Amino acid sequence: MSKDAHSARMAAADLVAAVTGEGQLLSDALGQGALTALAPADRARAQRLATETLRQMPRADAVLKPFLRRSPPAPVLAVLRIATVEMLALGAAPHGVVGAAVDTLRAGGIRTDSFASLGNAVLRKVAATDPAVWATLPVPELPSWLRGRLMSAWGKPATRAMEAAHLAGAPLDLTPKDGDAEALATQLGGEALPGGSVRLTVPGQVSELGGYASGDWWVQDAAAAMPARLLAAQPGERVADLCAAPGGKTLQLAAAGAEVTALDISQGRMDRVAENLGRCGLAANLVVADALDWQPEALLDAVLLDAPCSATGTIRRHPDLPHAKGGYGLRELFALQAQMLDHALTLLRPGGRLVFCTCSLLPEEGEQQIAHLRDRHPDLLADVAATDLPWIAPEWRAGDGMLRLRPDFWADRGGIDGFFIACLRLPG
Ligand SMILES: C[S@@+](CC[C@H](N)C(=O)[O-])C[C@H]1O[C@@H](n2cnc3c(N)ncnc32)[C@H](O)[C@@H]1O
């Protein structure tokens, strides 16, 4: 095994252990410690390996369990899980994987080196497992804090279908800057999706794809692209994107010709909005502030509020999330969303539009949030016309002006992120 592959595998083990042992998100763990010293290609490799291992983890555990008398410490278990996924899910040659995993345990210092011979013995048994067994293992279940909530909200068949979608992972979706999905799909060999995104099913290096450097498109899940499409910003309209970073929706609003203020509380994340705007040759007024404190100079035509949320709709892409977050802090998020909604309404001119969205599967961050908002503001109108569009599937509709998107929808096309979208309007 090359030195680079070895460091990528060690880094992957650190990442998995950071998520399962310390409750960190992969994105946070990637920016820490030895991982920052890795070459970009090794970091990408480590991230892919860690992501796939977290996605398949219950299956790896089912294979490992009979061979382990008790659970070893998180860093050791991470190495065993990764090697199991490599051998049985990714089809890697067993002798190479076992040797590399044992080397990783030896090189891991006091946390793991005393487990090298145990690792060797266990992984040899895993290597002798018939690979056909893997596909017969049950679809991994979500951790109970989330599974219980989804079961109550959507029922058992839907929850299982979402779990299957999480296991399948996600394709790469792009939003074309000029709105011509057919042309971009032809250029890159992808599929133009209803609504205007382009889907690529063959994974590749994003920055190597045609039109990346010239900013002709940006990466954005097809569901994440819908809120800004429903807002339908018109050239010259004054629009605020209240939780803007990293800026996918800001780019859409700016590309539509609106006069956009992109606001986010995080300077670091706002730097990414600036980078993305620069690459795509688009402009917005950037403000780093707490959305709850911000006031525009004049009332706005429209506000897009993509509020901070549990992000449970994005587990296809971020399988670390249910393991890392453990369901803590949800009440605070629900309360913040309600405050943000109330504040957003104060920024609109009479007749102004509000699109609220969350990449969440929890009704508390969607349907219930809007029901409570309408109780507090009985004059608020559902913007039914905003969702009166031919590409919206009937199963997405969740009441007047509202869409509920789930990862198990569009299964034949490769799924879609979970999202809730509400289109609202002040009386004129
Ligand atoms: C769901 S993400 C936004 C994604 C973004 N709209 C996009 O499409 O790329 C939520 C954002 O809200 C920001 N945020 C959290 N609390 C905030 C607050 N009080 N005021 C403004 N932004 C906030 C976070 O920094 C994060 O970037």
Automatic annotation (TrEMBL):
One of its GO terms (biological process) is regulation of DNA-templated transcription. S-adenosyl-L-methionine binds at residues 243-249, 264, 290, 306. The active site is at 359 (nucleophile). Keywords: Methyltransferase, RNA-binding, S-adenosyl-L-methionine, Transferase. One of its GO terms (molecular function) is RNA binding. It comes from the Bacteria. Signal peptide: none annotated. Residues 134-427 form the SAM-dependent MTase RsmB/NOP-type domain. Transmembrane segments: none annotated. It holds the Pfam family NusB. Belongs to the class I-like SAM-binding methyltransferase superfamily. RsmB/NOP family. This is 16S rRNA methyltransferase. It comes from Frigidibacter albus. The lineage of its organism: Bacteria, Pseudomonadati, Pseudomonadota, Alphaproteobacteria, Rhodobacterales.
